Structure formats: structure tokens, C-alpha cells
Amino acid sequence: MKNLIIIFCFCVILPFTLGSCGRQKAQPADTGAISETRTVNTLRGAVSIPVNPQRIADASGISDMLCIIERKPVATSDSDAYDYTRFPSYLEDMLAGAVIIGYPMADTVNVEAVLAAEPDLIIINPRQEKAYGQLQAVAPTIIIEPTVNDWRGDLRMVGELFDSGAAVEAYIADYETQAREAGAAIKAANGPDATYFSFLTAGNSYYLFTGAAYGDMFYNDMGLGIPQGLPEQDNISLPTASLEGLTGINADYMVVLASPDDRAALEASSVWNSMESVKAGRVIWLPQSPYFNQAYSVYGKKLLLDELKTLLIQ
């Protein structure tokens, strides 16, 4: 488990660029039919891809975004962070029928499963570059670079790739309206000055959601109060703190992602029980799966808004 979080929080994303530079007609050798293609420039050079792909294999971690613009993949790496063999619960319906080919923060792709899916377009991220040659032999393959922390930018990148900018902007606008309404309801119930904080506990490590996931949702999207002592986050890595360090973040409400064992360890700690929000009973406990990934998912975070509103209004 701890290794998983380290992979997620401390991975290094290599610089790759993606952009369209025109369209051309391609003549498939097997059928003689004309199909429209689009050329995109990457650091791997120009890649010709279908304008209207029908069978996308996505190993990059953008499958929920593809579904949002009605480009559901036939193969995906958007598996559960704690069990790579299944989908997280919030994506089960959306990705039903797709084949799981890995996990987006891992550096491997199940090439055999990709081949069996018969894709006409494959999407990977820089961590999986070592599989590029094998995948390129299966179907046109492009490398994209999701930022993880800037979900709007990531969604717009995907929308631009598939000429779906209008659908993307509509989704973002709907999310932002829902987030503002949820934040307003929480502040009306708990007071305008209440502060909120979320972290993930894994063993003796505490990963703080400050500028990403729950932190981004709380402070930027929902407009909730920021507690004093909260460190800044300036890259993909989540800031960490000791148990004693958590006491310096004096939030009125806390949302904690923990396994049953990690929760029991915290609840047995005198340091933990000395915190004002703990003594006041204002701690919301959530299981690590699916809630760790869900606040990063473009689709998952939208589902999460109403749930957080219900949990935080006491």
C-alpha cells in the first residue's frame, strides 16, 4: 500500500507535447476504403491517427474524460488504485465492458490485452514509454501528459484532441455550478468561517490534500475555509506531515482516508485525540478505496460533490 502511494505521489512526469497539425486521407491496404486521419506532433514525431476512432485503448488514465466526450474506450487502465483487476466503484457503470490493461501510474501495459482488444488508437502516458514500440506495431499510438493536478486543463487537452471543446466546456461549467452550490450549502450549515482539511493515512505516513484532489475541491471549487498551517503543494507530490505535525493544522472539519487498521491506530493515539476537531466529533472517515482516486478523477469528483455536502453538514 505504501509503495502504491509513493508511486502516485512521487512519480516523475517527462515532458511530452501533443498538438494537431492537419488532416489527410489514408487508404487502408486491406479494404481500399477511404478513412480520414489526423496528424498529431509528439516528441516521437508525427503520428497519423483516425479522426473518428471507434476502438480506443487508453493506458494513460483519461478514460473517464474520453467517456465524458462520448469516446468510451474498449481497453483502459483506469482500474482501482488498490486492486488493478477491477474498476473503482464510481467508474463501474461508465467503463462496463472495457478490458483492464493496467494502472495509469504504473510503467507497464498489458500489451497482449491491448492486442486482443483490436484498437484503432492507443493512448499512453510518459511512464509507459518503454512499451511504445510494441504498441505502435498494434495501432497508431500517441503519448499524452495529463498533469493530474489541473483536471480542467487535462479535460480541455482531451477535448481538443477529439474536437469536442463544446462538450468539455459544458461539463466544466456544470461541475463549477454544482461545486459552488455544495460549498454554499456547507458554509450556510457550518458557518462561513469554518475550515476544512483532508489527508490520507498509510501506515505511519500522512499525505495532505492541499493543492490537489480534496484540497483543490474544498478550497478552489467549493470555496471552503483554509486552515492555518496548511503547507502549499507546487507539484504532483502530496505534502506529508508527522502525526504531531497534523496538530498544527487546526481545521474545524477533517476528512480522513484510512484503512480500518490505520483508523484504529489514529484513534488510539493521544496526540490524535488532543485535536479540537477530533474532540468535537467533526472527523469524517472514508475508506481509501475508492475515495483516494475518486477526488482525482474528472468524473469521480463530480459525483463526490453531493456526498461531501451530505457528510460535512452536521
Low-pLDDT regions: 1-34
CATH architectural arrangement of the largest domain: 3-Layer(aba) Sandwich
In N-to-C order, the SSE pattern is: HEEEEHEEHEHEHHEEHEHEHHHEHH
CATH class type of the largest domain:
Alpha Beta
Strand order, main sheet: write it out. 6-5-4-7-8
Mean pLDDT: 87
Number of helical elements: 13
How far apart, in Å, are the first and last alpha carbons? 32 Å
Strand-residue fraction? 15-25%
Strands, count? 13
Rg for CA atoms? 21 Å
List keywords for this structure.
Rossmann fold; alpha/beta; 5-stranded parallel beta sheet; 314 residues; 5-stranded mixed beta sheet
Word description of this protein:
By secondary structure, the chain is an alpha/beta fold. It has two domains: 2-150 and 158-163, Rossmann fold, CATH 3.40.50.1980; 178-312, Rossmann fold (3-Layer(aba) Sandwich), CATH 3.40.50. The chain is 36% helix and 19% strand. The protein is built from 13 helices and 13 strands. The chain has helices at 2-10, 63-68, 111-116, 132-136, 151-161, 165-190, 214-221, 243-246, 260-267, 270-273, 276-279, 288-294, 298-312, and strands spanning 19-26, 35-42, 45-50, 56-58, 75-76, 99-100, 121-124, 141-143, 196-202, 205-209, 240-241, 253-257, 283-286. The strands form three sheets. The protein has a five-stranded parallel sheet with strand order 6-5-4-7-8. It has a five-stranded mixed sheet with strand order 11-10-9-12-13. The longest helix is centred in the middle third of the chain and has 26 residues, at 165-190. The model is unreliable at 1-34 (pLDDT under 50).
